[in-house]
Every structure is written in C-alpha cells, then in structure tokens.
Write a structure and sequence with these properties.
2 domains, binds adenosine-5'-diphosphate, binds magnesium ion, alpha/beta, about 35% helix, Rossmann fold
C-alpha cells in the first residue's frame, strides 16, 4: 500500500483576535519522518488541534490523500495516530488497560487489542511492563506506551507533538529512533513537532514554523544550500531570531 499523504493548504487559525496560524501551507513527504521545527508559540500544537479535529478549520483546507478531512472525518481519524504534547495516560490503570481502553474506542476486538498490544510493546522494549500501573513507569517508558497506544488501530499517519520533551538525552534519542523505524519498516508518514534541532537529521523533510508562519520547507540539506547557511541550526536561528514569540 502506498504511504499516505497529508497536505495543508492556506490554513489560518485565530484565537479571538490572536492569529496563531497565518496562511500555513505545507505538504508531508509520504512515508518519511517529517520534522515540524518551531520555537514555543510557533503554532505547532494549534496545527495538531486542527489535524485531530479538536478545533474546526476556520480558513483553508486539510487534505488526506487528496480529500478534505471534513468530508470523511471518521475515515480520517481512523488513519491517524497521535501522541499529544501533554500525556493522556491514566496513571492508575495498567499499561494494558490504557491500551485496551483506546482499542475499544476504536472498535477493536479484545483479541486484536491483546495481540497488537503485545507486538507494539515488544519492539518498544516494554513487553514485561504490561501489567504494571503506568504510575510506576519512568517518563521515557510512559512516552513509549503512548506510542504503542497510538499505533494500536494501525494508522498510516502518526503525529507526535514534542513527544520527547522533558526526557533525558538517552530516552529522547531512543524515542526519536523508534519513530524513525516506523517510517522505514511500516511506511508510516510521521509528523514530529519539536523545538529541538538535535532531533532533526540533515536528510529529513523539515518545515520551519515561527509565529504562525511557515518560513522554510524542504530537506535540511536543500534548505541550507538554498539559503546559504552552514547548518540547519544556523538557518533556524537566523529565521527565528526576530525576538521572542508571543507565547
Ligand atoms: P506551540 O505548540 O508551537 O508552542 P501553540 O499552538 O501552543 O504553539 O500556540 C500558538 C499561539 O497561540 C501562541 O501565541 C499561544 O499563546 C496561542 N494559543 C494557543 N492556544 C491558545 C488558546 N487556547 N487560546 C488563546 N491563545 C492560544
Ligand atoms: Mg505546543
């Protein structure tokens, strides 16, 4: 099956009079680890809220495989896996119970939920934590549970909003690598939002978002060449150097 495509066309979002997204257009590379790089207040989480339909699209269009997500919302949500910026696990439930709850919401059978939970937790290195309460897991492991949960209904697009924020370097790297594996091995189209440059590799498709506007889009390599910056870091700093975002 071909990897899924996601395109955002001229999307503007306002909170009252505050413009959080200003005529944002971008296209994810199917089957790739797409980095959405932007400082605090850039509009990353607002974009996620629109993609997950927490908010209605006020202006512009979001197209999944060429069709507006407003046309077949349930079909879209069935294809979408999400790890939100704030953890949404129930700490008092076990790992498996958290996954079961999510699976049931997606209409999966108990058997499918058990099989898929075991599979996802296995490769994420958490097979032996199935019956443990989430409260007893460290931050990195909790994030992995959220990734397993996001994969349970076999989505073709995976969105992660600052999934590694607040973790130590080793856990951050492990999670970043795990998500990259999903692109290589399953052809998932990933959107990875971050403000951390070290999570982006030079060959990744990158979208730089700042104060609600897309300032650059392309592979890290190509952007540096086109803009004549020595590194993605230098480019990012230059483009976002126009003072603190208004978060
Ligand atoms: P990021 O996730 O990149 O840090 P956000 O999407 O959270 O950015 O925020 C973008 C802008 O929108 C910021 O200026 C933020 O203060 C504002 N904002 C975010 N959520 C709300 C809200 N619910 N009401 C009003 N303003 C908001
Ligand atoms: Mg955010």
């Amino acid at each position: 099956m071909a990897a899924s495509s996601l395109e955002i066309q001229s999307v503007t979002h306002r909170y009252g009079t505050r413009v959080a997204l200003n005529d944002v257009s971008l296209r994810l590379q199917p089957g790739r680890f797409n980095a959405l790089l932007g400082p605090n207040g850039a509009g990353k989480s607002t974009l996620f809220a629109l993609l997950t339909r927490l908010y209605r699209v006020q202006q512009g269009h979001i197209l999944f495989n060429g069709v507006s997500i407003d046309r077949h919302p349930r079909r879209w949500l069935a294809q979408l896996g999400v790890v939100f910026q704030q953890s949404t696990l129930d700490l008092d439930l076990t790992v498996l119970q958290n996954l079961e709850y999510h699976g049931a919401l997606h209409g999966l059978s108990t058997r499918t939920i058990r099989e898929r939970s075991a599979r996802e937790l296995e490769w994420l290195g958490l097979a032996d934590r199935l019956r443990d309460r989430v409260r007893s897991l460290n931050g990195g492991h909790r994030r992995r549970v959220e990734i397993a949960r996001a994969l349970l209904h076999a989505p073709s697009i995976l969105l992660l909003d600052e999934a590694s924020a607040g973790l130590d370097v080793a856990s951050r790297r492990a999670i970043n690598n795990a998500v990259r594996t999903l692109c290589h091995e399953r052809g998932l189209t990933v959107l990875w939002a971050t403000h951390l440059l070290e999570e982006v590799q030079p060959e990744d498709p990158v979208i730089i978002l700042h104060r609600g506007q897309v300032l650059a889009q392309g592979s890290g390599h190509a952007l540096c060449e086109a803009e004549q910056d020595p590194s993605l870091g230098a480019l990012f700093e230059r483009l976002t150097a126009t003072g603190e975002a208004s978060a």
